[in-house]
Each structure stands twice: as C-alpha cells, then as structure tokens.
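User: Run a structure prediction on this.
Assistant: Running it now.
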Amino acid sequence: MEKTRVCVIGAAGRMGRRLVALIVESEDLVLSGAVEAPGNPTIGTDAGALAGVSCANVKISDDLDAALANSDAVINFSTAGVVEATRKAMQQNCSAVIGTTALPDADKAALAEMAKTGRIVFAPNYSVGVNLLFHLTDMVSRLLSDYDCEIVEMHHNQKKDAPSGTAERLGEIAAAAREQLYKDVIRHGREGVVGARTKTEIGMHALRGGDVVGDHTVIFATGGERVELTHKASSRDTFAKGALRAVRFLRDAAPGRIYDMQDVLGLR
C-alpha cells in the first residue's frame, strides 16, 4: 500500500510533536508537512528533530497551501483558523482530522457543510478509551435515567477552555439519552445557597492543576448506591494514536457527513 502523506497543523505544540513522532515511526504514513502560525520561533526547524525523532526531513513552515499541495490528509489540533484551514484542505482534496475544541456553532455548521463533499473526522477526543466512555455513558444514562448525573473533569493548569470538549460531549450524550437538551439541563458548579438539586439537571465541574493530561468521570447516584465511569489519560500518545487511526479510516470513507471517533471505532 502506498503511504498516506500527512500534514500536521500546530506541529510545534505538545500534541503536534507527538503526532510528528508517531507519523515518522509508522509504516504506512509519511510526514508531508508541518505547519505553524506566522512568527512562530520554530519555523525553519526540522519537525522531526523538534519532536525528538530523526529522518523527518520536513521543516516547520507557515505556508499551509504548499504543505497541503503535497498531502493526502491533514491533522489539525490548533485553536485558530480551523474553518479556513479545512476549506483549503478540501480544495486540495485532502481529508481532514480535526481535534480542536470549543468551536462556535457557526464553525461547526461550516465544517458540516464541507463534509457533504469532503472527508472529515471531527471529534472532541481521539482517545479510544474516551470514546468507549462515550458509548458506556449513553448506555448507562438510558438504564439509570432516574439517577442524578454529575460530570467531573480535570486537566493541566495551562488548558484555556472549561469545561473540556470531552466533558461537554459527555454531558450532551447523557442529556440526549434522557431525551433532554444539554443547554437546558447543564449546571456549571454550585456556590452559595442554591437549593436542593433538581432531578433533571446535569452537574458539570472543571478542575485545573499541575500537568494532568485529562481525567473524566461520569457519576450516577441515587439513594443507597453510586455508579462511576472514569477514564484517565497519562500520555498524549493515546490521543495522537487515535487521530492517526482516523486518518487511516478516511482513506476509504465516503463524503456526505462529518464522522467522529464512534464511526472510526465501529461503535455506531
């Protein structure tokens, strides 16, 4: 099989470096581009050397168009310009794997429109274990629909958005399983005399500290017992490997709709 040429946007970041390293080490993928924002001090640096591996022979660049011209797929975990970067990828007939969280609804709608004719995987979390947690949360939420549901997440002290995109997705899944709308039932933290907990609300709690990669727990509680579903990530490799799995999935996927990791893992 001919190797899939992969471009990484945000190649100098923590996730980008792991993606570069794993692509270089893989047998069926090849690094075709490594892109950063204009002015980034790593521009001109060998992407492999920056990631701690050898033989990448790709320098970090701010020229996305040139990188896409030599690529079959692009992976984007950056925080800015996601829609425009994806549009450029579609114009170059590149598939796109997007892991950016906290996108506004307008951006999500734009991606959905592009997916009608292009190949896109867009997911809040690329960990195989977390996506199993999504699946289990749906199952348990249906079985324990009368239990109180609370979600707790913790990440490193440099994470900018709260709650995490993964925690939001867990809340959306729990709400949908109970035939509720996430925006109507979510409650972010509690302070002061707020009264007794209502039966319909889903509590959401974001913790930040240290170098925690990502912990998520969904709690189902009722009188006399409590069920907890927990996933803890100790390495960014779990997310990077999932993203590469999504690249491989898109080789044979047909355009028409946005895919997520439930599709990639065959859980849907």
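The chain has ten helices and eleven strands.
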